[in-house]
Amino acid sequence: MKMFSTSTQMKFWTFPSQFEIDQLHREANHRYVSSHYDGDMEIDDPLRNEFFLSAEEEGLMRRVYEDELLKFCREFNPPMPAYVVGTAVAYFKRFFLHNSVMDYHPKDIMYPCVYMACKVEEFNVTIGQFVGNMRLFEAEEAIDIVLSQELLLMQMLHYHLTVHNPYRPIEGLLIDIKTRSDIPDPERLRKGIDDFINRSLRTDACLLFSPSQIALAAILTGGNTIGVSLDSYVANKLLESGDREQLMKLIERVKAVRSQVRALEPTVSGAEREELEEKLERCRNHENNPLSELLRQISPAT
């Protein structure tokens, strides 16, 4: 597999700070509102603010549908490998870095993200098997949603479809711990590791940190969960050939990953979600609704 350090993920989809990611979301929100609003964007208009989603409200809707995506993957039949889920989540986050949820409703994007991840990660399911898991839709509607958005998704991802997930580095670290440390039964770390990684999927960690940094943060958290310190292993084994400066940089990055995951915000309440869904339905771009008659007229072949 191509190294992360030379990958498109590192070059185009890894950002130096949360501020830069938030700024991209604000810009996507501003582009949509300015292109659908006739007034002066420099003047604060209560009616505009009441009609369109704010950047903060868009963030809440992304969180709602990230949770929906994860639920869909957890309940998928046949059981979906974790690395497929990680890739699907990465696609979803990347898509909405440059697009507003008002332009493309996240419920129409989440399923193509999962379907594309299944194909790229070679988790072989037919389109019939896939849409059979989309229980909220009739089969024909489900196929329309998935296939009509597939090319759009690839275009918006700039055809950068390879995703480096932390799962492979985690397995490598566990093998190394078993081989070069005196920690009894390292498999005990797995529950804490899995819990940490599952929580990280609901943050922007995959847009900020390397897979190996996320993996190490998960390993250390897994150790803390069962009262086992891995500090000696990291300092004396994992980085035995490195210098102190390298060690300190790694420690800071791992701390940042763990801080990001600890700061995970609570799930959006049902009442708040219902209100946001109603607002989004009013202000969304129905030209991009794969089930709309308007889109069928524009693109009768889809």
Protein described:
There is one protein chain. The protein is mainly alpha-helical. It has 17 helices and no strands. The C terminus is likely disordered. It has 2 domains: 180 residues, Cyclin-like (Cyclin A, domain 1), CATH 1.10.472; 96 residues, Cyclin-like (Cyclin A, domain 1). Helix 11 crosses helix 13.
Count of discrete structural domains: 2
Sheet-strand content, in percent, reads under 5%
User: What is the ordering of alpha helices and beta strands?
Assistant: HHHHHHHHHHHHHHHHH
CATH superfamily of the largest domain: Cyclin-like
Mean pLDDT: 91
Helix count, per DSSP? 17
Topology, number of strands: 0
Rg over CA atoms, rounded to whole Å, is: 21 Å
Distance between the termini: 34 Å
Low-confidence residue ranges: 294-302
The computed structural class is mainly alpha
Question: What's the CATH architecture name of the largest domain?
Answer: Orthogonal Bundle
Which sheet architecture does the biggest sheet show? none
The rough form would be described as globular
Determine and state the CATH class of the largest domain: Mainly Alpha
